[in-house]
Design brief:
It is built from 2 helices and no strands. It is mainly alpha-helical.
């Protein structure tokens, strides 16, 4: 039986995406607090990338088994 790293499994990838979303949320709040639109935009882009990580990995990058 092959032992995989936690972050190479589907659950680990979703955990990592959740952590990145929380960091992006903090960046967006910092941007709103300081009035910096660049920080808000950067947080939004990071959040969208983390949200699209799982569907892209599962449905586009993973080859289909026959």
């Amino acid at each position: 039986m092959e032992k995989n790293s936690f972050f190479k499994t589907k659950e680990g990838g979703l955990t990592l995406a959740f952590i990145v979303i929380m960091i992006a949320f903090a960046i967006m709040l910092f941007g709103l607090y300081t009035g910096t639109t660049a920080a808000c935009a950067a947080g939004f882009v990071i959040m969208m990338a983390a949200m699209f990580y799982s569907p892209v990995k599962v449905f586009i990058l993973t080859p289909k088994h026959k």
